[in-house]
Amino acid sequence: MPAASATFTSDHPNHPLHRLSREQIDEIGVAFQAIHDEVRGDLGERDAEYIRGLIQFHRRLAALSRIVLMASRYPPAWVLGTAGLSVAKILENMEIGHNVLHGQWDWMNDPNIHSSTWDWDTASTSASWKHSHNYLHHTYTNVVGKDKDVGYEIMRVDPKQDWEPRFLAQPVVNVLLMLLFEWGVAFHDMDLEAIRKGDKHVSELKDDLKGVAQKGGRQVLKDYIAFPALSGRKGFKATLKANVTANIVRNIWSNAIIFCGHFPDQAYTFTEEEAADESQGAWYVRQLLGAANIEGSDTFHLMSGNLSYQVEHHLFPDMPSSRYKEIAPKVKAICERYELPYNTGPFLQQWLMVQRTILRLAFPGGEPRPKSPPYVAPPEVRDPGPVVHSVAGPIPAFP
Length: 399
Prior knowledge:
Elements: H1 22-42, H2 45-69, H3 75-101, H4 126-139, H5 170-179, H6 181-188, H7 192-197, H8 202-230, H9 232-262, H10 280-289, E1 293-295, H11 298-303, H12 310-315, H13 324-337, E2 344-346, H14 347-360, E3 387-390, E4 393-396
Parallel strand pairs: 1-2
Antiparallel strand pairs: 3-4
Helix pairs in contact: 1-10, 1-13, 2-3, 3-9, 8-9, 9-14
């Protein structure tokens, strides 16, 4: 997080920060930091029980699904085992692996649940992912030219990105990335663009390729050779198909959640000049404006790794994700106080916005889409108490 020595400004009249003074931006930074510090001081046993319980549940579900798939040549076992393994892989990647590697649970000082030791069920190495995601993405969120996650260097998802003929293929690239997301992220983590520009030495690329080859090799051996072999000669192909299916389901789901949190219409992007020498308060506001939430049930939030609270995650990436729902009303209150948007919407709406953007920006041109208005809390609905039903509608029994 940057030092509070400068501020973020925008000369665009419709930009939320255009009307904010330096003092207001500093106040916003103090308010958000207070939320972070309050939760940090309250972390304790109930939080530790949550993550330990979830890890135990995931491991049991994964093991049970693998056992069921040993009988995968029978359709009911294939369906049950594949469904269970898909859910287990989603939980491991989204709510466990992603968040542990963010350091959300480092405060426990548990060497088995720590960002420095955790390895997850994906082709990306932990070290490469922490650099490209924790550092580059979360430091330079939606700064075009600095945040490599804006289009993952293979797609144009914002009009600020210069159009190139290669983007004509991005509708097809988009589908391939959905299906092969873990492998796309693994190669994205290597930052091939930095190699092309000469900002990264070829020796570093060789180290990255070696890491991905080793990690990817273990993934292939585990999912496509070892576990299918446990099903015997007659069940090998069925279990292989089940594991491929579970990985594709996980890939499509994680791709959808991540894209919906970063590329819907509401999310702002920034130029390098706009984000230069920003203060702590301005960093918080950029995180707020550059992310978007996805509305859903508690189960939906769990399966999304609580990245459905993408706004809260970008404000507080090292806060346990299980606390995001709890702090969301406080974040909304700050948005309302300073007339800032709180970007959110249902899953299908956010996903369709993203797909429309990818299709439109495959071609030259394109304009920024309308943004969310300042957040206003919905009016409080009071319980009318007992009512008497009539032709004219319900009437309070005790007016």
